[in-house]
Design brief:
By secondary structure, the protein is α/β, with parallel strands linked by helices. It is built from 9 helices and 10 strands. The protein has helices at residues 20-28, 40-43, 66-78, 97-106, 119-127, 157-163, 176-185, 215-222, 244-250; strands spanning 5-9, 31-34, 51-54, 83-87, 111-114, 140-144, 166-170, 193-198, 206-211, 228-232. It has a 5-stranded parallel β-sheet with strand order 3-2-4-1-5, sandwiched between helices. Strands 6-7-10-8-9 form a 5-stranded mixed β-sheet, with helices on both faces. The relative contact order is 0.14.
């Protein structure tokens, strides 16, 4: 059975961070159902005759219902089209991919998942910080800062604080104050290094450095409306020998 649908990671934004496989299927698709935050330069890689449909979801803004996205995937595939479901970052991280795959499986539609660079690794590259370090951070925890019903999800704050390592919170801009409050209450030192990075990998990338106690105020004062990743942990602590390129990029 021929593959009709490709759940494809568009990466963090920079078109040069696309995989070759992602580029190939985007260029060969009849229909592309893409997230709102996928860079326009990536969508422009589609064939001139391809149908490109924005089905993106953004916190607090009008968005296409997941059931409608599932229906479009199924309908276009059953009509004989090669369909690319283009998701920001990696399709299997906070992308509701399971629901889309289940819809395809229910209709016996063959699919393939094409991984993409997720925002966490793009942020680490921009910061010049490894998210794991010997004797400092032996684990990385990916969390969401936005629950399915809105507001902050009910994470086990005490367990996350005790686990150590580096915490990466996707969609963390609106909830950073609540995150800080919960982590400090759970025993995290208020001076724990923390960073917020907007538009990781893009020319308008912006980095805010601080601590878990100070970062919420910096994010609030910034008043930006951009995709923001929050990173917390000892691995983010400033060190000597940061390259000039990283200093220039962060405005240090």
């Amino acid at each position: 059975m021929a593959t009709r649908v490709f759940l494809t990671g568009a990466g963090p934004g920079d078109p040069e961070l696309l995989t070759l496989k992602a580029w190939r299927v985007i260029n060969s698709a009849d229909v592309i159902l893409h997230d709102s935050l996928v860079d326009a330069r990536i969508i422009a890689l589609a064939r001139p005759d391809a149908k490109c449909i924005d089905v993106g979801k953004r916190c607090g803004l009008h968005s296409v219902a997941q059931q409608e996205i599932n229906r479009l995937l199924v309908d276009y595939a059953l009509a004989g089209n090669i369909v690319v479901r283009l998701k920001g970052g990696d399709p299997m991280i906070f992308g509701r991919a399971t629901e889309e795959l289940q819809a395809l499986e229910a209709h016996h539609i063959a699919y393939e998942v094409i991984p993409g660079i997720t925002a966490a690794t793009a942020a680490a590259a921009s910061l010049g910080r490894s998210l794991t370090q010997r004797k400092v951070a032996r684990a990385v925890h990916f969390l969401t800062g936005h629950g399915a019903e809105g507001g902050l999800p009910a994470h086990d704050w005490v367990a996350l604080t005790r686990a150590g390592g580096t915490l990466v919170i996707y969609m963390g801009r609106e909830s950073v104050a609540g995150l800080a409050s919960h982590f400090i209450e759970a025993g995290m030192p208020p001076n724990m290094p923390a960073v917020a990075i907007e538009n990781a990998s893009l020319p308008n990338e912006h980095i805010l450095r601080g601590t878990i106690a100070s970062l919420p105020r910096s994010v609030h004062d910034r008043r930006a409306n951009a995709p923001t990743l929050v990173l917390i942990g000892e691995a983010l602590k400033n060190r000597d020998g940061v390259t000039a390129a990283v200093k220039m990029a962060t405005g240090d």
